[in-house]
Every structure is written in structure tokens, then in C-alpha cells.
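Morning - fe (ii) ion inputs below, output right after.
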Amino acid sequence: MCAEFYAVPLLPMMNMSVSYTEYDKISDVISSQPSLLQMICRFGIQLGVGDKTVREVCEAANVDTTTFLAVANVMKQGMAVAPFYVEKIDMTTMVKHLKVAHEFFLDFQLLHIRRKLLEAIDCSRQNEVAFLILKFYDEYMSEVRKHMEYENRRIFVHVERLIAGENVTDFRIKQYSKSHDGMDRKLQELKNIIIKYYTPSEGTSSDLLCNVLFSIYNCEADLRAHCEMEDALFFPAVELLEEKVAAQAIEQGVVAKSDPPQESLSDREKEIVSCIVRGMTNKEVAANLYISINTVLTHRKNISRKLDIHSVSGLTIYAIVNGIVKLDEITLQ
Ligand SMILES: [Fe+2]
Ligand SMILES: [Fe+2]
């Protein structure tokens, strides 16, 4: 817990009337901005909070008060206040919070909207627009799953290694953050498709459709806030942690040996990498690039030797970092 943090004296440039502090009653915080309700649940805070303050509730739930206030105030006041908190948040609390948010989106919210969508539209093949809307939504769910599972497996594990004091030299958060993409745009597109092009069957009530649209609006805003929180608060904090751990390693004389100089890939080899990380087999790569399978195998051997990378997962990170592919184009292993 960061007991030394007091939001009011340390926030001179902000509008104090809207900054939450540790002394606020948590019931007032929830009432003033209902969208914080989900955030509070994602911190593992149970309702039935009585007149307890933010600090009292956080301490009872074993949640770092500063991190709670950082998330609440960024949600309330916008991304501009995030830099103030970057150095102060507790990374274990933040990672836990983001993991729970992923679980919420993947295991509840997106499935819940799909169920409501199925009730609201006629998905028989005779209604092609409805069929395509559902297909669009399913593809979107799979993109979100890919994005969040990647963060669970790669980013959060990276941060946990840093928290444990490990000077991680094979990955830097900037390699991911610069290609980190918000996931709300496609949902916005879906909403517009429904509004513009889906006409409910005759005699059907529009209530269910309006209701699912409302859920999509909420989910879109929630996903946007989640991604912005990662961009403005979490990733910069990870960067600071990386610097801190690296500095400690230097102080302790545990400096990583410098990597041997790396040979760069030819344009053809980059094309091969691009195909592989998109999930193509050797045969498909050969057909796609009009070369023989043997040539593909030779290129793959050379790529592995040059990069000293021997797995598709490793190649995938290399390809993202070096701008060969974008995150949403790849097949994660
Ligand atoms: Fe995320
Ligand atoms: Fe993300």
C-alpha cells in the first residue's frame, strides 16, 4: 500500500472538485459516476460498503488505494491525468485489475451481447443481413479474444517477471505498446450496420434490438476505456519498471551480456516471416510466393540462424516489433 499518497495536496493542477480522494465515501464515488461500478467490481470490492471511505474499503479488500484512485480519476477526468499516477501505481494490483477486466469481457460481456443479438435478430439464412451481422460479431469476438489472450500470456507474464526483480532483456513493452490497437472501432461499425441496414421482420418488436444496441454502446465505451487505461497508465508504468529493474541490475553488477550482432533479413525472408506468423504451412508459403517448398525450408533455416529464433511465437514477436505484420494480422501460437 502507498500510505504516503494523498490525492488532494498532490494534485495542485487538477480540478479538485472532481478528483476522488481516499477520504471520499465510496458510495458517493459510485453514485457520482455509475460507470465506476464495473471498475470497483474488477478490483474485487464487494458492495454493501456502508459509509466507508475509499481507503477503508480498499484496505479491507487488500487493494492498493493509490492504484484504485489512479484508475478512478483517469476514468473520471480523462487520460490527461494519467502521467501523474504512472510512477505511483502498484503493478501487482494493476495487472490483477486488467486480468479481471479481460475475464469479464471474454467470459461474460461479449457472450452476453451475442445471446441478446441472437434473440433480437432473425439469423436464418433467409435473412442475409442478420446472418452477416452475426458473422461480423463472431469475427470481432475472436479478435478481442486474440488481443486479450496475447496480453495475458505475454504482457502480464513479462510484468510479473519484472515485479519479481528479473531484468528481462528479450522483450520491451514499447515493442507491443506502439502497435497496441483499441478494440472499440469494429464494435462501432457493427452498431452502425445494425442501425442503418437491419430492418426487423414485420410484426417484430424493436425492443430487443434497441436493448442489444444499448449493450453494444456500453461495451464499446468500456473497451475504449480499458485500452486507453493500458495506453496512458499501464504501459508507461511498465516502461518505468523496466528501467528501474535494469538500473538495479547494473548497480548489482548483473548486467546482461550484449547480444551478438544480428544479420538483417532480406526482403524475401521478411515475406516468408510474414506468411509464417499469419499461420501458413510451408506448402501454403510456397504457393503464395511462387517458390518451391525446398526454397521455403532453406529460407526458414537461414531466418532461424540469422535471428537465433526457433519458434513461431518468437518469430511473431520479431515480426510485430519490426513492423513486418500488425498484431491483428497474425495467428497466435
Ligand atoms: Fe487489455
Ligand atoms: Fe490491450
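Note: The chain has 14 helices and no strands.

O.
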